[in-house]
Amino acid sequence: MFKIDRDANRIVALEEPTFSELGFKERAHIQEWIAHNPRALDEPLLIIQKEFAGFSDTNERLDLLALDKQGALVLIENKLDDAGRNVTWQALKYASYCSRFTRDDIRKIYHDYLTKIASPQSADEKLCEFFEVDDVNELKLNIGFTQRIILIAAKFRKEVTSTVLWLANFKIRLQCFQTTPYRMGHDLFLSIEQVIPTKNSEDFMVGLANKALDEVEGAAAEKDRYALRREFWARLIKKMNSVSTLFASVSATKQSWLGTSSGVRGLSLNFVATQSFGRVELYIDRQNKTINEAIYDEILLQRDLIEENFGETLEWQRLEAKRACRIKYEVAGDVFDREQWPQLIESLSDYMPRLERALEKPLKHINDKIKSGQFTSTEDGIKAGDDETLVE
């Protein structure tokens, strides 16, 4: 690695000391760097445990345990200046141990980790946030043989690289990241680069493996959960069509939600049905967080009147960590239990028309403001409008 000297129009090589020479340790430093910034491995990862020792009848410890966005467990082994000869065998053992973990096992492992670091959020909350779902029971974690391995070291021996490339033929996703420290004066720098497989070849190999897994899992899911959802939505739509035209042009889907336009672009009226609850909601997303929040705040001014017309207390969610905002009402229910369908369908088909009526005037007010050029994003935020507020 070189530093560019603009004035002299030259490049100056940075020093390449070893981690040992710099006084860095495997667990105290490399492991902590990755744990606090897993994005350094070129993808979003959720660290769920450090120094994991939850393997039955062994005293072995896995450096870092994580989840990727597909719900696969990612086992991360850190080495300092040399990966050693046996790192692949060690990592494969850990992967075999972890292959039996259920979703509840993973939730407990993550709960223990968050308790240890005194996190204010629960494991379920952070899992839902990372995977962008409403219900942790919807998650598919550690399905089949999807466990992944990441090896991190400054140097990989031929025994390691040869084994890693051979295992790739069996759809075992094992990546090697090379870490290199650099120094210029008192300044230290770190390079983390995926070297095996190279990024382009990895995309191709992972694509083939994922395609095969997706086809197998997709076929099974379509036969049970997806099929059940479609049937549930079809029955709910039929019921809705007997009391309202709101969902007349909507078709059943395999997804956990079913939506239609509220009459204002970017604001949808949705049903959500999961293993734990059924929901009616107004979802606000005009592709701009500032505008979404301004619209939400405008509707919030009429909270008392809206809830009076709806007949129940609504849950108002500005969703600070997300782009969208939401106003919702939930009832208990399991969409995958046919015996609960009659009550769930009755409740949702009752609450949705009530929500539509309660929001009719506020949404008309919002639409008028949008058409008049208000709620327009500018460099200073939202274009100011008049101070008019809704009156009944």
From TrEMBL:
Stretches assigned to the DUF4268 domain: 228-361
Cited InterPro entries: DUF4268, tRNA_endonuc-like_dom_sf
The protein's name in its UniProt record: DUF4268 domain-containing protein
Organism, as annotated: Methylobacterium ajmalii
Organism ancestry: Bacteria, Pseudomonadati, Pseudomonadota, Alphaproteobacteria, Hyphomicrobiales
